[in-house]
Sequence to fold (845 residues):
Amino acid sequence: MQASHEVKRADHAFWHETADGLLTRLGSRLTGLTQEEADRRLQTYGPNLIEATHGEAVLLKLGKRLLNPLVALLIAAAAISGISGDFGSFFIILAVLTLSITLDIVQEYHAEKAAEALRHSVAVRAEVVRDRTPVALPVSQLVPGDIVLLRIGDLVPADGLVLDSENLQLDESILTGEPFPARKNNAPCAAKDAADAQNALFAGTSVVAGKATMLLVETGQRTRFGAIASALAANVPPTALEQGVRRLGLLILRLTIFLTLFVLLAHLASDRPAMQSILFAVALAVGLTPELLPMVMTVTLARGAQRMARQKVIVKRLSAIHDLGAMGVLCFDKTGTLTQAKISLAECVDWQGIKSDQVLELARVNSRFQTGARSGLDDAILADCIAGTDWTRRGELPFDFSRRCLSVLAERGQDTLLVTKGAPEAVLSRAVAVEIDGLAHPLDESLRTRIDAAQQRLNAQGFRLLGVAVKSVPAGHTALTLDDERGLTFLGFCVFADPPKPDATKAVAELSALGVRLKVISGDHAAVVRHVAGAVGLGSDNVLTGAEIAELTDAGLAAKVEQIDLFARVDPDQKKRIIEALRKRGHVTGFLGDGINDAPAIHAAHVGLSVEGATDVARAAADMILLASDLNVLAEGVREGRRTFANILKYVRMGTSSNFGNMLSMALASLVLPFLPLLPLQILLNNLLYDLSEIGIPFDSVDAEETTRPHIWDMAAVLRFTIVMGVVSSLFDAATFLILWKGFGAGAAEFQTGWFLESIATQILVIFLIRTARVPWRSRAPHIALVVTSLGALAAAFFVVLGPLQSLFGFVPLPWPLVGAMAAVTVAYLASAEVAKHFALKQGA
Ligand SMILES: Nc1ncnc2c1ncn2[C@@H]1O[C@H](COP(=O)(O)OP(=O)(O)OP(=O)(O)O)[C@@H](O)[C@H]1O
Ligand SMILES: [Mg+2]
Fold:
């Protein structure tokens, strides 16, 4: 087979070609490609992926870092040192630069790689014909020429032509913005516009009804969706954490620019050597910037993702981890979450509740012949059915979530019957008669009351019900419309048992204890929802139904969602409206669901959650995938999210209070002293050692109270902490200053050596106070990685300052009393910082 066939650009209207023509052009057949040929094509066309590959990303990262103005400044500084003949500084600045950039990129790369591998493990699969047999492959492996089978709930994996279809309808809103499903079939088409090509399917759209066989024509970036995906990706709104960190970064940047310019001008105005002043200002700017913040964020989040994977939660979007920890409200649908995924058919009964074989038989005909997504209800109906059927399928009105019913047309001998099954209200509203002893009786008020009574009796026992009704149709009438679904004769009910999971009660209690409010949003009947919720300890009895929601404005709904915890007979769009209402009320909201009907809500939530066995659209919309459909794994995920947030906050607090405070005092000291408090090179060294000391933060353990309630980014609290801790730090810097300058009468080199020691020791050691809101020895022990990095960095500092290399950095030997004084200042500072910390945190609580 030739791999040289032509695959044209995405704007080529492949839907003008005939199926046979396209098959020939793509060197394919209805029986699919061989695996060998597919492998060859994968080499030629690359994986069927929209995102850029990793190789570019690393280069991009390097590029971004080199473009960073501070790095550029550093490079300039190195150049200036080199040109002025100061090769010591030149090499050390370069070393500092390389180290920090490499550290950043390598750490981040590894972290993202790990996260990527996890994401890959839950990648969406497609059913594709290879070597004549349908196999489920990750969509990334698909190539032009592949034959793909699609059913309801599937995502279209790439662009291509419909070869064969039945009742096919697609949600193309992602491409066209059109909310109503588009009908598709394999008839030839001359439409100029892709949006009107009823025989073409496009990547990113999803099947909402029917099924199809398609021929892939364009994959990956060559699809229409590929062209617009980057624009969509840019549209993902930043999380509260990302926003907060960005705002903080901007604030620090402004302060840094202001401070360095101020220091530079002040130095130049007082006739200090220009070159040295510039280098000092540059080093100060470098010292002020929390340059490791992006790395710490990614590594902490990726580490969180790895730990969550062990708890059976796969994270697709890293920043959602924070949202999960911050989540105050979690909504979910009922089946599979609160109840066991396995629904069973208890019995089939007639309209009065008496066992009926006729209802069972017709329910089976309906379930067997329907081609939409097999729901758990259909599986249950067909479960013990081994015999074939003497009915023939003639047509179908497929299921949708607003009708909540579906009909099939079936023929046996002379009889042609429309068999409808669905939510009892939906079926009853389409019925005009009831079958009693083989005869149709008009459905009057008294009969309705008796049917309602039977229904309520069963619902109250926690059974789920589907109504079954029929209608005779003239033979030959196969072109069904929704009007045919009227004038039905009601037969009875299918009665399903869907018992609550044994451990759901525990999970509900655990999540509630974590401060997460739980709400059930179900398409099922109010009585069933209330029953299941009661059984797992979800207290509230108040139920809001879809019919009531339909009457409410968005504002009206927002006012209601606070108190109501149970929602019943809700359609997919209303699920989304409820989530939006909760978001509008300021709640960080999660939604867990598995069906096509859940996808819009999953998408709308801050944290969209789905489960491994869910439909493609639900999994594609989700930020996280649970490998077990179990609320218990979620509780651990929530704790992990909070741990992650706590560790990021540790770094932020360190950066803003300890590091920033030290740099600030130094800038001020430089205005008073006749010499520099630290040489530019020493500042850079200080910065590097401090960075190294913090590499362990993402691994650190977190106190229990950090995970018992939702945390969200609170800028005011961060600033308050900074100010309180900054004042303490400045007081002790001032003390150091006076002791060194006035007390010991230290000269420039001695002053710098002493100041460096005090500065680096306080800055590194304070992590052991800042990492916990408790008294340090009452807290959980720091992770060994943090102990090693911080004490290691401190030891390195001592070695450089007091060891044989000291002259290289401009340090001199210190008299022992001076070292003792610096140690005393450090201890006193740590003691005061500990006291101040409790004050700073209490204010911020
Ligand atoms: N295959 C089917 N045939 C007939 N009716 C169906 C079928 N699937 C669903 N329905 C009807 O539509 C209603 C809503 O569907 P479904 O139960 O899937 O919604 P949901 O919101 O996912 O509910 P849950 O909270 O139970 O998961 C069902 O209660 C049932 O009445
Ligand atoms: Mg469901």
